[in-house]
Amino acid sequence: MFTDKYLRRRKETLTDAERAVLEDGVAKVVELPPRKVIVEAGETLSQSTLLVDGFMCRYIDDRNGFRQLVAVHVPGDFVDLHGYPLRRLDHDVAALTTTTVAIVPHGALDRIVEQYPAMARKLWYSTMIDAAVHRAWLFRLGRLDAGGRIAHFLCEMSARLEAVGLSDGRRFALGLTQADLAEICGLTSVHTNRVLRTLREENIVTLRSSQVEIHDPARLRRLGQFDAAYLYLDDTTPWASPVGNL
Amino acid sequence: MFTDKYLRRRKETLTDAERAVLEDGVAKVVELPPRKVIVEAGETLSQSTLLVDGFMCRYIDDRNGFRQLVAVHVPGDFVDLHGYPLRRLDHDVAALTTTTVAIVPHGALDRIVEQYPAMARKLWYSTMIDAAVHRAWLFRLGRLDAGGRIAHFLCEMSARLEAVGLSDGRRFALGLTQADLAEICGLTSVHTNRVLRTLREENIVTLRSSQVEIHDPARLRRLGQFDAAYLYLDDTTPWASPVGNL
DNA sequence: CGACACGTTGAGATATATCAAACGTGGTGG
DNA sequence: CCACCACGTTTGATATATCTCAACGTGTCG
Q1: Spatial separation of the C-alpha atoms in residues B32 and B184, rounded to whole Å
Q2: Residues A72, A184 contacting (CB under 8 angstroms)
Q3: Residue B156: inside a domain, yes or no?
Q4: Domain count, chain B
Q5: What is the pLDDT of residues A183-205, one digit of tens each?
Q6: Does residue B9 surpass a pLDDT of 50?
């Protein structure tokens, strides 16, 4: 099963049988080039996307062509599962890097939800983690200054990537430019650059060509007032997350 | 049925039979005093709260005792339905004003979800609207300046209250102090006060002792770059929202 | 009448944006 | 193999939005 690659690294929340059912629903696996937009706001959707490899994001455009990222996705995430109940989205979805995605038609989800109530619950739960991440992002934008926002985001990425075996808590690849990071944190790229410099100079964290190296995790967490509880990573309720961190 | 009061005002999305089922699940109806905290982050929940009357909010505390509101609820909203799948929340839930709430034990939801798959979908959908609102708030905090944030929020409240018959699109009661508004918009209350003054002076909107009067809806919308699509108010899919705007 | 919460105003400090330019570097075509 | 281009990064100088601190006003309610 291709989902083995990352999905198994996490606290097992989908049973093997359930993962098989989900994979049965996969219509095809595709590679997307960097920056490829796969969903535009308002479109009616007939499928959802499971991210197998690479990084994706979701964003809302403003009037002046600037955009606010509202989510970043790592391998194992069910990127637009919320599009299944919602039908049409309020934002765009795009690849950040070259990615591999598995396409799950909504018809397949209909069947899964009907036949396997336990999976229906886990899918719902999964979308609720996504919402919890939104709330953490609200906190980040509303209450933290530039340094705190960047620190908080890097902590989140480290935790989520570690959960799927893509970070050791110190170093990881992150397919983001400084401009992307700015769009996540509600800052200009110029200011983001300056803040990254001081973070580097103070020996807290270094970000170079999409490689992140955390030198002082404790200070980074404190700067970002980061508490990973909202990621529900240790959850083992019958509701627990079906895939990746979502 | 007590839910008639507001729930019927909206595009009918729960059938009468379904509303009856939901009301059957209500264990009790209670009144809460202003500022009453009903859920604290991390607690394990065994019930969810339907807001019948008044205003409630959800918020995340920072280290210094400041807080960021992550949601505001109006009558008809299922305030912490996400607590049903999540079990424990990543934030607090509190009343803003004196409120009336209906308590729905999670056991009752279990029964509903098992017996009525169509309602299970509608409940899921409802939590997805809540998440869509989170994303609009991310846009607000990340991309708009102080005036834009306040304008955007007031547009949202006007639209949501209008949907439940509590606003005529021009005037409505909003149980918020300027300090609350500041915590919603990621601003200080001092700055919020100044921005409100210019909004009043420019004859766009007046907020006086929790009464909002919109003098120039078009300019307010433009200022806040507001587009109500994310509220999915006109949705009539089989998924459509069960209650209030959530 | 006093207390308390909420709203208002002022002066000054600071974080972040803006505009403009230069730099590095990996890739590409001649 | 070099020249050059595109893209991301870095830096400087200046403008501006928002915060901070401190004080004062105003209404409401016991």
Answers
A1: 21
A2: yes
A3: yes
A4: 2
A5: 999 999 999 999 999 999 999 99
A6: no
| Structural domain of B236 | 135-245
Same domain, B32 and B97: yes
Confidence band of B239 (pLDDT split at 50, 70, 90): low
**CATH at residue A100:** 2.60.120.10
Nucleotide nearest to A187 (CA to C1'): C16
The pLDDT tens digits of the residues spanning B51-87 come to: 999 999 999 999 888 999 999 999 999 999 999 999 9
Q: Which of B143, B227, B232 to mutate to test the interface with A (most CBs of A within 10 A)?
A: B143
Residues 192-231 (B) with a CB less than 8 A from some CB of A: 225, 229-230
Q: Do A138 and B139 touch (CB under 8 A)?
A: no
Per DSSP, the three-state class of A65 is coil
Contact flag B134-A136 (C-beta cutoff 8 Å):
no
* Secondary structure E strands in chain A: 28-32, 37-39, 47-53, 56-61, 67-73, 92-95, 99-105, 171-173, 205-208, 211-214
Residues B65, B44: one domain? yes
Report whether pLDDT(A26) > 70. yes
Which of B108, B128, B148 is where one domain is finished?
Answer: B128
B210: left (phi over 0), alpha (psi -120 to 50) or beta: left
Residues B23 and B65 in one domain: yes
Instruction: Identify the pLDDT of residue B210.
Output: 86
| Whether B90 and A117 lie within 8 Å, measured CB to CB | no
Put simply, whether A46 touches B (Cβ < 8 Å) is no
Q: What is the overall mean pLDDT for chain A?
A: 91
| Cα distance between residue B165 and residue A53, in whole Å | 47
- Same domain membership, residue A189 and residue A111: no
CATH number of residue A182's parent domain: 1.10.10.10
Asked whether residue B214 is assigned to any structural domain, the reply reads: yes
Domain termination site, one of B110, B128, B146:
B128
A3 in any annotated domain: no
Q: What is the mean pLDDT of residues A154-180?
A: 95
Strands (E), chain B: 28-32, 37-39, 47-53, 56-61, 67-73, 92-95, 99-105, 171-173, 205-208, 211-214
Q: What global pTM score does this model have?
A: 0.94
Which of B41, B82, B139 faces A60 most closely, judged by CB atoms? B139
Considering CB atoms only, which of B82, B235, B239 is closest to A128?
B82
